[in-house]
Design a protein that fits this description.
Helix content: 40-55%
Number of domains: 2
Shape: globular
Strand content: 15-25%
Largest sheet: 4 strands, antiparallel
Radius of gyration: 20 Å
Number of helices: 2
Length: 180
Amino acid sequence: MLEHVGRRGVRCPTCKGSGVYRGRVKEKNDLQNQGRKYQVCRGCGHFMWLDGIGIWPSNPLCSGCRYPCRLQKQRPRSGWQLCCAYRSCKDRVEISDDKAEGWIDMFLCGVQMHLSRLAGEERRLRRCGLPESAPEMERLLVRQGDLNGQRDQALEMKKFLQRRRELAMGNAIAGSCEAT
């Protein structure tokens, strides 16, 4: 069910209209979007995901709004794209699987580095006898949880890449067997 949020002051970033609705993907699909929140304008059709999946600081900047682009999957056999994370400037560039995997690996490396730093900070705070309810410790644990969630999302994208490669290899083998 879509919730009408236009009447609460939420405006479409494209047409500035108030016909904005928010919802959540209910059905499981090929792109594994089940459960993701989105926003859609009934006036102009502007669509935007309301999460940070695929928006990483290591991604190239959008040429229009100068924020990091979103790396997202297209339909199962059609590849990846970098697009404006906020869909305000219609930037969209298709990229290869290898390039997408490179950005995913670069992001995972950065996340692992941050997690290692936070683990050292957590050890230091625990040695000082700081309880988990202390604000410093709570902030650290929340940040670790956020980073672990982002890492899991990136690993899911990497698994999607691997499954697609396996599928392509299976089709190539089947095609070569039929040719003989």
